[in-house]
Specification:
elongated, alpha+beta, Nucleotidyltransferase, domain 5, IstA-like_C, five-stranded mixed sheet, IS21 family transposase, Integrase_cat-core, 20 helices, RNaseH-like_sf, 14 strands
């Protein structure tokens, strides 16, 4: 058996391959093959766990398969294929099985195939690297370091917080500075990143910050509603990294350090007075980073992105996402909610309930248990303004609100010209509050009399009185009602016949022709 460990120990100590061959008793070709295979697989030092049998399995896995009669597998090729989009171990095992059986060989079972690949991947760099596929993920985060701008009027230094988005496959990044890390800027940063990449990845991987994740319940993250809405609009999903697990988003974590050195550190002494000016400088530095060639890989971030990844991103929607923010509010006893010191009505049935409020630049929508119950144009300007929908009021409140001079004139028009003249007279002669009280009494008469009776009585009132009042109108209506009742009684008396039943000519056949 070849002494792999002895060969590599001597090689790492700087012993020549000729001397190693003489010392171990193996041919120079065997020594050279072991050394070259170790170089290819990245073995640069030996640990206690790397026994002779371990090294044999790791360096020459195909020999193990051949010895046991199984069709050998090129694990390096499997490793490369898994980096491609939509390629899985199941698919690669199926292809391997097909080739093996066509050649009359015995293939490994799927479970053994996966176990052996796991061992290979683990040995590849002593930790199992996660090979991202193009267009699969965008990792996002705020950097720990900040930049700053200067207030022109006070000379005060204002911190600028730096947002980073990275595509792990190509390592292409987007960087932008903001004056705060609140939800609106968090969403704007994502929109700008999508537009910079000219596409949308399948998955977003943020940290568990409040602008992205409201809380974690039993291990399941509860997403910020505005963030979830943005993801739905761009047809992507959000998978937050686990708490205190930076390896869940290693690309952006690594980029944060790199950006901190290449951009933030280089601009630490740059003085500017506006955030747009600072972002112009950041963009210049970012373009340099994205176009510089890799050290251990052919091409640059931008070149790899354009040639291999861009086509895998989803297309942007035709219109940009309309920024929204979500808040909660409690419905007050006056059936209004307070949002940013403005008041908006909701149906009075929801008094004292907790509701969700969706805010855009020009609209406010109110939701109760995911059902929209109200919407208003967003109020701006002086605080304390009210936006009230009459349909949200109880009936008695609505009637009180609608009891005004204009509505009373409209009501009079439905009765007739005499009533219009009478209502106008009441409004002109009396103070508005007293006039509205009188008109309330007048309108109550419409529940007892028809429009025709009211119009006729009002016409009579205006003819007989130069100072018409509602009490006189009531008298006219009462007398008219009594006259009508008396007339009905007299008519019934005249129609009564006291001579019993009289058979007509038809009964006796007198009308026969």
């Amino acid at each position: 058996m070849v002494n792999y460990r002895k060969i590599l120990e001597m090689y790492f100590e700087g012993v020549s391959q000729r001397t190693i061959s003489s010392s171990t008793g193996h041919s120079r070709n065997s020594v050279s093959e072991v050394v070259q295979r170790a170089k290819k697989l990245g073995v640069e030092s030996l640990s206690d766990t790397m026994t002779n049998s371990w090294l044999e399995t790791f360096l020459f896995p195909e020999k193990q398969a051949i010895e046991k009669g199984y069709f050998p597998i090129d694990w390096e090729e499997v490793h490369k294929e898994l980096q491609k989009k939509n390629v899985t171990l199941s698919l690669l095992h199926h292809e391997y099985t097909t080739v093996a059986r066509e050649g009359g060989k015995i293939p490994y079972a799927y479970r053994t195939f996966c176990e052996k690949y796991g061992k290979y991947a683990k040995k590849y760099k002593l930790t199992m690297p996660i090979r991202r596929k193009p267009g699969e993920i965008m990792e996002v985060d705020w950097t720990g370091s900040t930049l700053h701008i200067i207030d022109r009027s006070t000379g005060e230094t204002i911190p600028a917080y730096v947002f980073i988005a990275t595509l792990p496959y190509s390592q292409l990044s987007y960087v932008e500075a903001f004056l705060d890390m609140k939800s609106p800027n968090w969403l704007i940063a994502h929109i700008h990143a999508f537009e910079y990449f000219d596409g949308v990845p399948e998955t977003l991987v943020p940290d568990n910050l409040k602008t992205g994740v409201t809380k974690v319940l039993r291990g399941e993250p509860l997403l910020n509603e505005a963030y979830r809405e943005l993801a739905d609009y761009y047809r992507t999903v959000i998978v937050p990294s686990r708490v205190r697990k930076p390896k869940d988003k290693p690309s952006v974590e690594g980029t944060v350090g790199y950006i901190s050195r290449q951009i933030i550190a280089s601009l630490r002494n740059y003085q500017c007075f506006h955030i747009d000016d600072l972002n112009e400088r950041i963009l210049e530095k970012l373009e340099e980073i994205n176009t510089i060639d890799f050290q251990k890989r052919p091409g640059s971030r931008k070149k790899v992105f354009e040639e291999e990844e861009k086509s895998h991103l989803q297309q942007l929607p035709q219109t940009r996402y309309k920024l929204a923010e979500w808040k909660t509010a409690k419905v007050q006893l006056n059936y209004h909610i307070q949002v940013e010191r403005m008041y908006y009505s909701v149906p009075y049935d929801y008094v004292r309930e907790q509701v969700d409020v969706r805010l855009t630049t020009d609209l406010i929508e109110v939701y109760f248990k995911e059902t929209r119950i109200a919407s208003h144009k967003r109020l701006n300007g002086e605080v304390g303004q009210f936006s009230t929908n009459v349909d949200h009021m109880p009936d008695n409140h609505r009637l009180y609100l609608e009891h005004n001079p204009e509505n009373n004139r409209k009501w009079a028009e439905t009765i007739g010209p005499s009533m219009v003249q009478f209502v106008s007279y009441i409004l002109e002669v009396n103070a508005e509050k007293k006039a509205l009280s009188m008109l309330s009494t007048l309108r109550n008469l419409s529940t007892k009399y028809t429009n025709k009776e009211l119009e006729k009585a009002t016409h009579t009132l205006l003819e007989i009185s130069t100072n018409p009042t509602i009490s006189v109108l009531k008298g006219v209506l009462d007398r008219s009602k009594k006259r009508k009742q008396k007339s009905n009684i007299d008519s019934q008396k005249n129609n009564n016949n006291d001579h019993g039943f009289t058979r007509g000519a038809e009964y006796f056949g007198g009308n026969k022709k």
